[in-house]
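FW: tagging you since you asked about this chain on Friday. Here's the raw sequence from the shared folder, copied in full. Didn't touch anything.
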Amino acid sequence: MNQGKPDPDHHEPSNLFHPLNVLLTLAMFSMTALFLSMTLAFIYTRVQSDLPPVNIPILFVFNTLILLGSSFAMYRAQLAYKADETRRYQHALIWTVGLSVLFLISQIFAWRELFLSNIKITSSPLAGYLYVISGLHFLHLLGGIPFLIYFLWQAYKYLKEPMTVLIYFSDSDKRLRLRLLTIYWHFLDGLWIYLVLFFWVNYLIR
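HL: got it, structure written out here
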């Protein structure tokens, strides 16, 4: 289906310095520094104050599986875009949006579970870190949802007629934006896995 179409994996050198590419790189670097500094502060506070560990709810682990599914669906959407497969592209985007929203809803229930277990944001400094760190990840994922919805809206608006389908799948700017959004989604997935493992290991070390 993509005969004669340039291989999307072979990006022009200029794309490396595209403003959106640079912006995403800086954003991910900043987020990495932010979460790394906060987890280090968590360790420092625990050691200095000799505080008991905070256990994460089982929903945090369940949410990891949801986010992995969302990230995989986003990867499938990118593959479908490269192959000009309209239906598969649309369905993959629906799954990405649906699983991402499910993650956000489930995360609210995870905080509720913590609250009902009498682990509140003011219970201890470590509990405060747990809420704030997981809350920051929540906000970063929430901030990406409008972009996902925008891609989904475009996929159903323009992928109707053969001519608009051809134009849509040949748009190098859309290809770049989809690739960057996919990278961002994988980054958020990896970041969440790191956070869950971090809190779990800290709980095991008494």
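FW: Residues 93 and 135 are 25 Å apart (CA to CA).
HL: agreed, and Confidence is low (pLDDT under 50) at residues 1-13.
FW: great, closing this out.
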